[in-house]
Design a protein that fits this description.
Elements (H helix, E strand, L loop, with lengths): L1 E7 L2 E9 L8 E5 L5 H12 L6 E6 L11 E5 L22 H15 L5 H17 L18 H17 L1 H25 L4 H23 L5 H9 L2 H16 L16 E5 L5 H22 L7 E5 L14 H8 L5 E7 L7 H5 L3 E6 L2 H11 L3 H5 L6 E6 L11 E4 L1
Parallel strand pairs: 3-8, 3-9, 4-6, 4-7, 5-6, 7-8
Antiparallel strand pairs: 1-2, 1-11, 9-10, 10-11
Helix pairs in contact: 2-3, 3-8, 4-5, 4-8, 5-6, 5-7
């Protein structure tokens, strides 16, 4: 696959061409402020690669302004009122890259990234709930052969499970258990204080003895009323009705976002370009959609196996919204490390990549700097290892700094100034 980028400013006769067989991978970082030409360059790349063996191009468009020809584009506009969306609980069946634990960790990580962070009790309880949910649907943590060909639980199923456990705390056995344990704890604390504070005498000894007898009766009643061994385990796992109520509210809030639905987006499989128009989604909703869809793309690629050439190209505009340096297991970071051998090329367009993890920057074989705001100049210079003045003197829509890391000389980190 060949892409004509422009001409070397130092030698205008030299055409700068990107060769997929020469670069270390198909990943790009395109950096440019508003009006510097990011959208134009994305469309330029797409127009050149769409007929060079790429079977699918995905465009995640937060502003809805990356337009390509309707002759080869299937565009879906996402919104709260749209009947389609994505299931956040889909498990990757691949034994190396997937599994129940990984799905649970990813789901909890997304919640903590895009909304208020769960406290440690809520996170632990949600983890137990998800394990119980997957087990109910036949998915087992340590059995990869159970991760495929199953009906996958949905967010509605999770909400129903939380609701069931919450009702048990209010009116069921867990309510009785929690009430008795709370009362027993208070009585034991009272007994300890009596022993520590009261001088020994016959009257106090009688009070302490009576309290001990009362505790014995309560414990016996508590044990006699247990119907299964699971009840005390469930009480310990789910901590309290307050914890479950907080999780229930969070899951209902997720459902209210309108992006988590069972109907898949109606993309036309006959069209090579799938355009995800996200202009009507909040940033939080965009983050969930990008992350979960990228996971599905990666699942499909791993199932198809190793490939020698790029056959799937993914563009993520405003990528700085969705990743940060402290998320090394984010799907974008995983794709940057692992997806080359599965035929995926990832193009991250951003106004500032200084908040990208080092892994993503190192694992991007090609970089294009179109010009940035002065506020981003020095952080960008530091993260890419290039002099600030070289970035400062790029001319939006006229010139850029371009770096291709070659398989033959992967240590070559030169940035070439290219004229468009």
């Amino acid at each position: 696959m060949l892409l004509t980028i422009g001409r070397n400013r130092s030698n205008p006769k030299e055409e700068i061409v990107w060769d997929s067989n020469d670069v270390i991978n198909g990943h790009w970082i395109i950096v440019g402020g508003s009006g510097t030409g990011k959208t134009y360059q994305i469309k330029n790349i797409i127009s050149q690669v769409k007929q060079q063996g790429v079977s699918r191009i995905h465009i995640f468009d937060p502003h809805g302004d990356i337009s390509t020809s309707p002759d080869y584009t299937s565009s879906v506009r996402f919104s709260e009122s749209a009947p389609y969306g994505i299931n956040p609980l889909t498990v990757n069946p691949d034994p190396y890259y997937g599994g129940v634990r990984r799905r649970i960790n990813s789901f909890i990580g997304m919640i903590n990234r895009y909304s208020a962070k769960l406290d440690y009790r809520q996170e632990a309880a949600l983890r137990y709930l998800l394990q119980e949910l997957y087990s109910t649907f036949g998915f087992e943590n340590d059995k990869p052969d159970t991760w495929a060909c199953k009906t996958t639980p949905t967010l509605i199923d999770l909400i129903n499970l939380v609701s069931h456990n919450l009702k048990s705390f209010f009116v069921g056995h867990m309510h009785a258990i929690s009430t008795q344990i709370d009362y027993l704890s208070g009585q034991l604390l009272h007994l300890r204080r009596l022993n520590q504070q009261m001088p020994p005498n016959n009257e106090n000894d009688k009070n302490i003895t009576a309290l001990k007898d009362n505790l014995k009766t309560m414990f016996a009643h508590y044990i006699d009323n247990l119907t299964t061994g699971d009840e005390i385990d469930r009480y310990i796992k789910y901590d309290s009705q307050d914890t479950l109520k907080a999780i229930y509210d969070r899951m209902e809030n997720l459902r209210a976002l309108g992006i988590f639905k069972t109907h898949q987006p109606p993309f036309n499989p006959a069209q090579p370009i799938w355009h995800y128009d996200m202009r009507n989604l909040y940033v939080e909703e965009q983050g969930y959609l990008v992350e979960l869809t990228l996971e599905q793309i990666f699942i499909k690629a791993t199932q198809e196996g190793f490939k020698d050439e790029i056959d799937t190209l993914v563009f993520v505009d405003e990528a700085q919204r969705f990743i940060s340096p402290d998320t090394p297991d984010h799907i974008i970071a995983v794709i940057s490390r692992e997806a080359r051998k599965f035929g995926i090329g990832l193009v991250l367009a951003t106004q500032n990549c200084s908040n990208f993890s080092e892994d993503i920057i190192i694992n991007s074989g090609s970089k294009m700097i179109l010009g940035v705001d002065e506020a981003y100049l020095h952080p960008l210079s530091k993260s890419l290892g290039i002099e600030p003045n070289r970035i400062r003197f790029t001319h939006p829509r006229k010139s850029a700094l371009v770096q291709f890391k070659s398989k033959k000389a992967s240590s070559d980190g030169r940035f070439i100034e290219v004229l468009f």
